[in-house]
Design goal:
This protein has 497 residues and is an all-alpha fold. 75% of the residues lie in helices and 0% in strands. It contains 17 helices and no strands. The chain is globular and about 75 Å long.
Amino acid sequence: MRSARRTEPEGQSKSRLPTSRKICYALGGVPYQLTGNAISFFLQIFLLDIVQLDPFWASSVIFIGRAWDSVSDPIIGFLVSRSPRRKCGKLIPWLLGSTPFGVLLYCLLWFTPSDTLPTSWKFLWYLTTYCFFQTCLSCYHVPYTSMTMFLGGSQSDRDSATAYRMGMEVLSTLVGTSLQGLIVGKYHASITLNCQRLNASLTNETMGNSTSPLTDTLENARMAYLTAALVISSLYCLSCAVVVLGVKEQHGPLSIPDQTRLPFVNSLFIVMGHRPYTLLLSGFLFVSMAFQMAQGIFAFFCTHAAGLAGSFQYLVLILLVVASFSIPFWQWYLVKFGKKNAVFVGFSLIIPAFIILVQVTHNFLTFALTMILVGCSTAVLFLLPWSMLPDAMDDFQLKNPSCQNLEAFFYSFYIFVNKFGGGLALGISTMSLHFAGYQAGNCEPNPMVKLILRVLMAPVPITLLIIGQTIFCFYPIDEEKRKEIRAKMEATKNPLC
């Protein structure tokens, strides 16, 4: 089991990972962030204010779609792990095969059916489209994230490649959300302005022709959402082409080609029985729920509670610019002070920001300054989960030398937790609006809706963050343990199982 030097599998080079390969790999993460963040920031307000679905139906679309997506991730991860290795690898074919369908379904998700359709048919349209799109995206993202373990190079190369990827994903989030916000934001502002004018005219006029400006603006907004979807879809295709042409798969650090594969249930129990991995999953479940709850209602909060309708896209732009520039700092910080330390410092920054956001209204400058704290903390969320996961996987491989080729399984459950947390958060927030009495198309929400928005924007996310950080206190892989794992990995030769 022990040897002075590690035997390298065929195709695994000790040379450092080329920067060009890191960049091409990083560009492959663009589709997930482009589409995922556009959905997280805008799908809720799109379904409520543009499609004008009742909050109950909108929350059902989001929650059921995310639940479907979460359950499908481990299954796709298992299928990816069982895939045969072809000349181009076993992961690249999944990326190529899923992209055309993913692009088509993403465009259909932002298409608005006729207003004459019954609500039940609209619900089925968005639920079906959302579920199938998320399945196609999982077929892309699960093998893509698993590719971290198949890039070649050392543990430090993997950390570096992860930092490149996270920087590119933050940048793609910035580009995608900015494009979506700039294209559709002005129409939300126009709808709000027309509502105000309509309310002012109702005292002297009947509603007859007064509703026509609202109708015209609504149609323009629907076309804008579809235009934004087409732009983002073209970037989706381009990034897939770059990663397929620019990255060559290697064998995993301790993997043996064509070795025996465990059944799904056995793989599930073995993976979930690894304590560092389950603590990592649990901690990031609560942290992810906190961030995604705030993210999901942010546009809605700015429009209906903070008095900043039409300005939220600029606030999101500030947030993402700060997050992009913060990635190199946090990469330096985690190398200098450790990843576990970065978790506590980074996630604590957003707590005072949440408190400020719910205390201020009609003050763009205060919101803009607060976005600096939110952006710094968001950068940690982008970087740390994916930087810490390979450490837990290395620890698993050392403790279970006969269980290999489970990389896709590990990554799929990680994605499952992130999506499940996001779906639960968005479902809770949208259902809360339903019980608060929100009605689509109302120009002025009732006071209970505004109260619920403030509760969902600060007290609930802060509570979830505190729970997540408490779990991380028990996470066993600190910087000393990580160095010990790295030394053992270098000294362990390939297990023959």
